[in-house]
Amino acid sequence: MDDVLHTQPANVEMPVAKAQIGGRAIVKLPFGYLDNGIMRDEVEIREMTGNEEELIADAKIPLIERISRVIGNCVEKIVDITDKNIIQKAVKQMSTEDRTCLVVNLRILSLGPLYDFIATCTSCSKSVKATVDLSTLEVTPAYSKETLFQDIVLPSGKKCKIKVQQGVDEETLDKFTSKNKNKILTAAIYLRVAELDDKKPTMEEITNLSWADRTFLRNQFDKLEGGLDMEISITCAGCDTDFTSNINIGQAEFFFPKG
Ligand SMILES: [Zn+2]
Questions:
Q1: pLDDT digits (tens, 9 = 90+) for 225-234
Q2: Distance from the alpha carbon of residue 240 to the mean position of ligand 1, in angstroms
């Protein structure tokens, strides 16, 4: 591997921010679609129509499936790939961070960049109205775009092979955490650890890792996958406390803005 891949690339602006609202846009993905060793990280999207609105509103379909279908419908091209069947399958293989990036860009392209939402103050628990310009969110490109896997050594000395979280993993995670709400943090790590000391770990082994190892792993996942910084700083109008809140693309308001 070239030395340059070991340096985290500088953050880049949201590509769609420069595109006009409506029509089409090119999105540069934080990671990219990796197929048979070929990396494709430029995607052409079209704005959402009533078809996608109906799809997003259809609560009978699991949310992750709805998001996959909306992305699949609106992606017109992944570099040279234009076959819709291949695109629909590719969307499920894409990283969670790339999928989030595409959803945010679809929102900007179709409904504009301003997103109003309600956050809860961490100090006084009051509801606080916040507005974010989605086109100003920072994108960090992935550490390397050559492989879905990376070998690392944990602070405890354990060897670990980590893996980019993909759309298919989101479905597994969703099914598991709907039944095991007290295991959400562990499951998110478990799905991204392909090997621990050269074998597939059990959920119990991931639970029993030290807090330091788990924190280290989460930081490594961020580097491996890149992505959008979804954390927003908010000041409470009631008690003047500054706190942070994460943008949640799964909230109804994200796609159905009021007013
Ligand atoms: Zn407050």
A1: 999 999 999 9
A2: 6
CA of 111 to the centre of ligand 1 (A): 30
Q: For the chain, where are the E strands, in sequence order?
A: 24-35, 38-46, 75-78, 114-120, 127-133, 139-140, 149-153, 159-163, 193-196, 227-228, 231-235, 242-246
Q: Ligand 1 centre and the CA of 123: distance in Å?
A: 5
- The rounded Å distance from CA 183 to ligand 1 centre is 30
Q: Are 55 and 70 in contact (CB under 8 A)?
A: yes
Phi-psi bin for 84: left (phi > 0), alpha (psi -120 to 50), beta?
A: alpha
248 Cα–ligand 1 center, Å:
20
Distance 244 CA to ligand 1 centre (A): 12
- From the CA of 13, how far away is ligand 1's center (Å)? 31
Within this chain, do residues 189 and 98 fall inside the same structural domain, yes or no? Answer: no
Domain total of the chain: 2
Domain encompassing residue 25:
3-140+228-255
Same domain, 191 and 131: no
The model's pLDDT over 170-195, given as tens digits with 9 standing for 90+, comes to 988 888 888 888 888 999 999 999 99
> 120, 123, 128: which is closest to 237 by C-alpha?
128
